[in-house]
Amino acid sequence: MNHRERVVSALNFCEVDRIPMDLGGMDSTGISAFAYKRLVEHIGFGKRSPYVHDTCQMLALPELDVIDYLGCDVVTVRMGYTNAFIDDSEWSEFDFGGRLQAKVRNPSIFEVLPDGTVIQRANKMKMPRDSYVFDAEHGGHPIYFEGEIPDIDLEKIKEELEKNRLTDEVILKTEKICAEIYYNTDYAIFFNGPTLGIGIGNYGGLAYFPLLCICDEEKVSKLHDLILEFSLSEVERVLPKISKYITVYMCNSDDWGTQKGLIASPEIFKKLFLPYYREFNDFIHGCGGNIKTFFHSCGAIYELLDLIVDAGFDIINPVQWTAGGRSYKDWKDKCRGRLIMWGGGVDSQHTLVSGDLKVLAKEVQEIVSILGEDSGYIFCSIHNILAEVQPESIIEMYRTARKVNL
Question: Is residue 158, in this structure, part of any structural domain at all?
């Protein structure tokens, strides 16, 4: 099988010649730019400045020779650019405080302080010298126990959405990119375009918004109506132009789980989120092609898996079976034949960072053997490969997965 055939077969629960694999299809199946730089040098591809496309998580845009070296089958397409062929003229060199020489799309957003701390001017997020990612005070989700739950200004949100509409130029460029990849390569295209944009922690923060879902369902419903209408209007401008080219559509990142349980109840998901997700998924599935819709939700979300299926999603990521006390076997049994699992290939919080290659290989072998049963599985780690992970571990992880007998 070629790359695209392998992925499409897995996404339709059909037989594959080996497990399809991904690195960087979307922002939570990626790799830290710090780890990527070491990986590239270790492989023997020379010293390169990584392309940092996500400047909060500091994720590298994996280049094709690295993807091919690891045996991956997926390329990413974002609005206006891709890793299938990178236009260097759209990137500029930037030194992240003397710690990482990289390329970014807009260096003007950064400021480097004398101590090496890097600040993003607009949102005040910062990356101190001892950090590998940008972060905000209170993680961007402050909570104060005095006073009322912050209100949501629907008119202001509507204005902000309108300000960020896609331009016709970017849409046309994206269409050309997708066509070129489709006709000139055999990679599966993972499309990161307009998402639905609702989330259990999106407005007011992770501490407040779940409370609002309990205290003011009507306001949350109006908010979601507004966002759905806008999102569908954007998808309608883009998707009909590219539906015949793309394999996977990234619909939303909506983290519902902690390490131990859910952030909000399944009843809230069912009442205030599921209907909007279903309408969004139905629209995408109705645009032609054989597009599979992708839902990212971290943490212990095992209890939501049935509802995620009911919402019309085809794919769940990152398959964080390490959270919530359920095994990867439990996840496979719950999803088998009806929900594709994208990720979950190794315990990335412990095994992957340990540096013990024998333990790593054994774990990947065992997990992939189970998750790959009856197809419906794409391999990558649980969430991103962190900055501390050594290149030997990354190579061993993909080498082992590639050789698992189905």
Answer: yes
pTM score > 0.90 for this model?
A: yes
End-to-end, the C-alpha distance of the chain in Å comes to 15
Assign residue 14 the CATH number of its domain. 3.20.20.210
CA distances from 151 to 86, 203, 238 (A): 43, 9, 33
Q: How far is CA 332 from the centre of its chain?
A: 20
Task: Read off the tokens for 207.
Answer: 């501490």
Asked whether residue 95 is domain-assigned, the answer is: no
Eight-class DSSP state of 112: E
Q: Structural domain of residue 195, as residue ranges?
A: 3-31+64-82+149-403
Contacts of 269 (CB under 8 A, 6+ apart): 256, 304, 307
Q: Give residue 24's region: left, alpha or beta (phi > 0; psi -120 to 50).
A: left
Cα gap 291→293, rounded to integer Å: 6
Query: Among residues 374, 404, 343, 292, which one has the least CA distance to residue 8?
Result: 292
Helices (H), 165-273: 168-184, 209-215, 217-242, 266-272
Residue type at 135 in one-letter notation: D
Closest to 341 measured CA to CA, from 384, 303, 373: 373
Gap between the Cα atoms of 345 and 360, Å rounded: 10
pLDDT per 10-residue tile (average), the chain, 406 residues? 98 98 96 98 96 97 98 98 97 96 97 95 92 90 77 94 97 98 98 97 87 94 98 97 97 96 97 98 93 98 98 98 97 98 97 97 98 98 97 98 92
Cβ contact 84:181 at 8 Å: yes
Using an 8 Å Cβ cutoff, are 78 and 54 in contact?
A: no
Within a 13 Å sphere around the CA of 70, how many CA atoms are in the beta-carbon half?
Answer: 30
- Number of domains the chain is built from: 1
